[in-house]
Write a structure and sequence with these properties.
The complex is a heterodimer of chains A (about 290) and B (about 240). With about 290 residues, chain A is α/β, with parallel strands linked by helices. Chain A has 10 helices and 13 strands. In chain A, strand 11 and strand 12 form a beta hairpin. With about 240 residues, chain B is mostly helical. Chain B contains 13 helices and no strands. The chains are: A alpha/beta (about 290), B mainly alpha (about 240). Chains A and B meet through strand 5 and helix 3 of A and helix 1 and helix 5 of B.
Chain lengths: ~290, ~240
């Protein structure tokens, strides 16, 4: 059975269609990145998975149950955007509070170790730094040992060092065969920390696969050169070219066959090509191409 | 759920504002007034030191009911803490019931401290049965005010809930005759007080100390207010937590 299934799910807020007919399924035990620009529908999708929002159309299921059932069974844990803690309680009290609400929680010691909070057990929430609060929120998300962990832009407002430590914690938790879905708009995070990347843009799935597949799928290579004042007409007709972009006198060609494109560029046109640069598309190129097209 | 209730109570006891306004203020106010007017007697022949015990205990309970519910609840809704709880197995109704339970527990310190101050400093004494009837009716009778606080907390943002709760609390205390005896002002104030749940609430206590037992008409009015405000709080809570 799949851990997460979206079956033709749409969600509108009045005139705004936040999620537009999304269908996807995620196998148990996978760590999946939900990658997209702000406003792409990431948070809406996560809130529907938690039963905090109801889909306008279609159904969402978690291990074959409705989100509300999965939540009631203690199978879901989440780090939502902008969740604050109760200022007067200590780290230990907060974690114990949430632990006590789940049927089979993790041990306090294990949570503290995973979230790297052992030194802060007795500190009150109002005395924590931003990064430390985020770690506590992660601890609360995993406290109940949920089979499905949802993280909505978990590293926002973390410095580089904290981020590194955070992803280690996430991996350690996921290693127990748990399913993790995290939303991010950082490409490197999606690339480095997930088994699979689902790119969403304007409420639709724009691409779905491993980071490598997504890079490959969007034109294998990128050719860039200085065009200056010369006309750009005809560049899109060169062999292999899938996309053309002209900006500030620089032409960027995305191509599935760099050799053929270059041959065509030199032999088939009269352009004066200068400053040529050839590179494999990175995930950022792929991402930009995908989110622009859709 | 029990642990949740315990931490709820614990956090308020660590809140300085709660301690000052709710726990210390009624005791200090009682001691000041009782030392000035304590030896006088009211129209029913009850010593003022005992009358003021009821007034200040009622005020403390009222203040506690509203302070431990309205603003913290509005803040939790806004800050995302409510959502954190909503994604745990805790059912939605249990959240608000726990809030109510914790607020009930938090009424006790003000009731008991004013009573202890009255006994130790003013030598107030009454039969054990009266003590039980007094404290029990002031304790259970606080429910409508907790409901009012939760109603405000579900309806308003934290910034708006703060003044709203304060205004309600002062209005109920003043107009209900908790700060100044209604008899001392008379006339219009008496009529207004008749409409205040707080007046009937404190009146439960005043009747007990006058030796009249628990007044059924006052009790009924407090119960009706409890149902009305409880219903309003439940409605506002549902509205605040409804899934769009």
């Amino acid at each position: 059975m799949n851990a997460i299934v979206f079956d033709h799910v749409s969600k509108d807020y009045g005139d705004v269609l936040a999620v537009d007919d999304v269908s996807l399924s995620i196998e148990p035990g996978k760590t999946v990145a939900l990658l997209g620009p702000n406003g792409a529908g990431k948070s809406t999708s996560i809130n529907m998975l938690l039963g905090l929002l109801r889909p306008s159309k279609g159904t969402v299921s978690v291990y074959g149950r409705t989100p509300r059932q999965a939540v009631a069974a203690g199978q879901m844990g989440a780090m939502l955007q902008s969740g604050q803690l109760i200022p007067e309680l200590t780290v230990k009290e907060l974690i114990d509070l949430i632990r006590n609400l789940y049927p089979q929680p993790l041990d306090l010691e294990e949570i503290l170790k995973l979230a790297d909070l052992t030194d802060l057990v007795n500190r009150r929430a109002n005395k924590l730094s931003g990064g430390q609060s985020q770690r506590v929120r992660f601890a609360l998300a995993i406290a109940g040992a949920p089979k499905t962990l949802l993280l909505d832009e978990p590293t926002a407002a973390m410095d580089v060092e904290s981020r590194l430590r955070f992803w280690e914690s996430m991996r350690a938790y996921a290693a127990g065969g748990r399913t993790v879905l995290f939303a991010t708009h950082y490409l490197e995070e999606a690339d480095e920390h997930s088994d699979r990347v689902i790119v969403i843009a304007r409420g639709k799935v724009a691409a779905d696969g491993t980071a490598a597949q997504i890079k490959a799928g969007v034109g294998g290579q990128v050719i860039r050169f200085t065009l200056g004042e010369q006309p750009a007409a005809g560049l899109d007709l060169l062999p292999g070219v899938t996309a053309v972009e002209i900006a500030a006198g620089t032409a960027t060609l995305r191509t599935s066959d760099a050799d053929a494109t270059l041959a065509g560029l030199y032999r088939g046109t009269t352009l004066d090509v200068r400053g040529l640069h050839l590179a494999g598309a990175d995930l950022e190129d792929a991402f930009l191409a995908l989110t622009r097209e859709s | 759920m029990l642990y949740y209730a315990k931490t709820e109570a614990l956090r308020m006891l660590r809140n300085r504002r709660y301690i000052i306004f709710v726990v210390l203020f009624p005791v200090v106010f009682y001691l000041i007034n009782a030392n000035i007017y304590g030896t006088q007697t009211d129209s029913a022949g009850v010593r003022m030191s005992t009358y003021l015990l009821v007034s200040m205990a009622a005020y403390g309970a009222l203040a506690s009911s509203m302070m431990s519910s309205a603003v913290p609840w509005a803040q939790e809704r806004q800050s995302g803490w409510l959502r954190q709880l909503q994604i745990t197995p805790l059912p939605s109704w249990a959240i608000i019931v726990t809030k109510l339970g914790a607020a009930m527990v938090l009424v006790l310190p003000s009731l008991l401290l004013v009573s202890v101050a009255a006994v130790l400093q003013q030598g107030v004494s009454m039969p054990a049965g009266q003590w039980v009837a007094l404290l029990l009716s002031l304790w259970v009778g606080a429910i409508p005010f907790i409901a009012l606080g939760l109603f405000i907390g579900s309806l308003l943002s934290a910034d708006a809930a703060q003044p709203a709760a304060m205004i309600c609390m002062f209005a109920l205390s003043l107009l209900g005759g908790l700060w100044f005896p209604i008899d001392a002002i008379g006339g219009t104030m008496r009529t207004i007080a008749g409409f205040m749940p707080s007046y009937h609430y404190a009146s439960l206590g005043w009747n007990v100390i006058a030796g009249h037992g628990v007044s059924m008409s006052d009790a009924l009015i407090v119960v009706v207010w409890g149902i009305v405000l409880g219903g309003a709080a439940a409605y506002a809570y549902r509205r605040a937590t409804v899934r769009a």
